[in-house]
Amino acid sequence: MAISGTAGAQSRAPKGLYYGWVMVGTLAATETISWGILYYAFAAFLAPMQRELGWSTAELTGAYSVALLISGLAAMPVGRWVDRHGPRLLMTVGSLGGALGLAAWARVDTLPAFYLLWAGMGLAMAATLYEPAFTVVAAWFRRGRGRALLLLTFVAGFASTIFLPLATALIARFGWRDALLALAATLALTTIPAHALLLRRRPEDLGLLPDGVAPSDGEEMVAIPAIEGATLRQALRERAFWWLTLAFFCGTLSSVAVGVHLIPFLIENGYSPGFAAIATGAIGAMQVASRVVVTAAGSRWPHVPLTAAVFALQAAALLVLLVWRQPAGVIAAVIMLGAGRGAVTLMRASLVAERYGRAHYGAIGGALALFVSGAAALAPVGAGVAVGVAGGYTPVFLGLAGASLFAALAMVGVAGRSG
């Protein structure tokens, strides 16, 4: 394990509210707003943009996929920056870039400009969404990391619930261009000041310790220990890292593809569009609930087998969906799918911090996020092409169940290979 930092600095043991919780509370709010506006609201603008500009769904969503790819490619440099300089400048500039991008989107009239705009939005996503926020949690917490991640992702889990209806209402009231300007103003006024004024690099910079706990209870003066953790080079040389990457790539590919294609799958199998929309929307609600359960379980069970169980649950959900073709079966599958998706977000952050430490968490987490983002970008179009080749959704969903099961098996490789 590589060790960085300066040992032996002296500080008073902190009293009162630990500043790490101020950071987590701030990020819980800004992540909710950033995810809601930069990520989820896109879907609300598809239909009105098609009506006005005449672009196809494939042309519009292609720009969104470009943003996801750019975000994934930027994950490693973003992680390195946060490791070395902290989140304040990066996330402030990212929020500013996102707000400017939304304002530019409101004036777009050509498809090349739209794609160029969304390439820039991908950089804003990389600088403001979960990856830098998770790096902050890893730097500020050890024993309380699970609770901090739970608070952050529990609140942000309501982003789509809040901002999809809000964006739809703004479009209906003002039109899609003015709705974008309203969202740009919301993003700028809420996230830029919060990131600029409240974010800090590491607790050691404030004379604090992770979790606000001194090494020796009862001592007023404590030594701040060196910051420990594996380097990115060490992680990339470890076979377990690549098993972990393969697991999350396959699991993400499956869960994102199902989330995008569940509505047409259900309609193909005779369900009404209304039922299909409600069932798909329920996945989001189950994600939030599952994070509470997983946080409690993670304090008692090792994270590697727990993550393997979560991927296996996703595979089982798809098999239920394919075999039990009744409304009750759909509901059971949705509960399992939502539970799995919500848990995976927490487990990825926890596993990287637990296995590799906090000194270079951002760079290592960014390397993993590169592959996860690639899977998320590939999943919608890849599944769509597969449906066309296979002639229906049943064989494709069976293949996605196999991908989730393979992800569970890859976690066995993480547990069994340390070199």
Q: Can you characterise this structure?
A:
By secondary structure, this protein is mostly helical. Helices cover 78% and strands 3% of the residues. It has 16 helices and 4 strands. It has helices at 19-40, 42-53, 57-85, 88-105, 111-128, 130-140, 145-156, 159-174, 176-198, 232-236, 239-268, 273-298, 303-323, 327-356, 361-390, 393-416, and strands at 3-4, 9-12, 221-224, 227-228. The strands form 2 sheets. Strands 1-4 form a two-stranded antiparallel sheet. The longest helix is centred in the middle third of the chain and has 30 residues, at 239-268. The two termini are 13 Å apart. 48% of the residues are buried.
In short:
It contains 16 helices and four strands. It is mainly α and 419 residues long. α11 (239-268) packs antiparallel against α12 (273-298).
Which secondary structure elements does this structure contain, and how are they paired or packed?
Elements: E1 3-4, E2 9-12, H1 19-40, H2 42-53, H3 57-85, H4 88-105, H5 111-128, H6 130-140, H7 145-156, H8 159-174, H9 176-198, E3 221-224, E4 227-228, H10 232-236, H11 239-268, H12 273-298, H13 303-323, H14 327-356, H15 361-390, H16 393-416
Antiparallel strand pairs: 1-4, 2-3
Q: pLDDT below 50 for ≥5 consecutive residues: which ranges?
A: 1-13, 217-224
Mean pLDDT metric = 83
Helix content: over 70%
How much is the radius of gyration in Å?
22 Å
Strand content: under 5%
Instruction: Tell me the structural class.
Output: mainly alpha
Question: What is the total tally of β strands?
Answer: 4
In DSSP terms, counting alpha (H) and pi (I) runs of 4 or more, how many helices? Answer: 16
- Gross morphology: globular
Order of strands, widest sheet? 1-4
**Alpha-carbon distance between the termini?**
13 Å
